[in-house]
Amino acid sequence: MGIALGSAILLCFGTGLLSHWIQHPPSWFWWPAHPVWLYRVTQGAHVISGVAAIPLLLVKLWAVYPRLFHRPIIGSPLRILERGSIAILVGATIFQLSTGLLNIAQYYPWKFFFPTAHYAMASVAVGALAVHLAVKLPVIRDALQHRLVESPTEPPADSSTRPHISRRAVLTGAGVAAVAAGLAVAGQTIPFLRWAAVLAPRSGYGPQGVPVNRSAAAAGVGDRARDPEYRLTVTIGDLQRQFTRDELLSLPQTRARLPIACVEGWSAGADWSGVRLLDLLAAVGDYSGGDIRFRSLEQTGIYGSSILPQRHAVDDSTLVALTINGETLDLDHGYPCRLIAPNRPGVLQTKWLSEIEVLP
């Protein structure tokens, strides 16, 4: 049970850490533009493994619950370390899985900023897991080699209060529950499983067949996005040019089939068309390289701007999109224009573009 739970937690931690680095990249981090579906897979695996870990955690706690209260409460320094690591591990894991589940539904009954807290507590949980594994390594080794016997200081639970259930029944039940939980959300990432995604809040429905995380009403950009005086400002060094939407439409148009994948685990493929970013920059001046900042009509919060690395900027499928699935962008999808780039989180695919600036 511990192996299954630990594997799910480590997969969830690894893919979550990757997502954090993509959004807040350290100087040494490198994330490719291709394959275009890679982030869709890694973030889908993050959410699916986290949800699948919930029944595994419950079964694991049920299995070890009597041992959590064995005497002595304090004991030797090694026992104190073991008890402390268990307390931190259980608390941190419950926090991570419960808040992560609520984040999938975009329900935030707390006042802290979820990404920061989630990232910090993940490190606490994995640190506690490492300490726990180090302390229990001899027991784990003996258990895996089928040599474990009951310690005389830790007698088995009283059979009169704890009914016997076979190991096979427990493992089978936990496995079925984990698979069922994973399937209940996997459909928001894996199209052919959408029929089973009963707990997935976004499984393919939305304007023009693509889900929406943040609407224009929530962003407060409706009037500015529909303003006839709207202009997209593009800046390269000392050169600057403004484009109306009609002028963007008059430039060479490029089509690309790209998924949009969000940190909550949902993703959907779509056919986008618009101006290739390199073509748009060429209409202003000479783009000699560098990262690019995109600003939204939405001025505040994490959706207000994004930085596109050069390796994504020069990709032929990176567009200032004007249509989706053959139709003019819906206002909730970023009308009058939006960024769509390969292998990027949805939170970085800035909608309702107002400015594009090549950084020095």
Structure overview:
This protein is α+β, with helices and mostly antiparallel strands and 360 residues long. 42% of the residues lie in helices and 15% in strands. The protein has 11 helices and 10 strands. The chain has helices at 2-23, 38-64, 77-104, 114-135, 137-144, 167-186, 216-219, 222-226, 245-250, 277-282, 310-313, and strands spanning 232-236, 239-243, 253-261, 267-276, 292-296, 305-308, 319-324, 327-328, 338-340, 353-358. The strands form 2 sheets. It has a 5-stranded mixed beta sheet with strand order 2-1-10-5-6. Strands 3, 4, 7, 8 and 9 form a 5-stranded antiparallel beta sheet that branches. A hairpin with a 2-residue loop joins strand 1 and strand 2. Helix 1 (2-23) packs antiparallel against helix 2. The chain is elongated.
Highlighted features:
360 residues, alpha+beta, 5-stranded antiparallel β-sheet, 11 helices, elongated
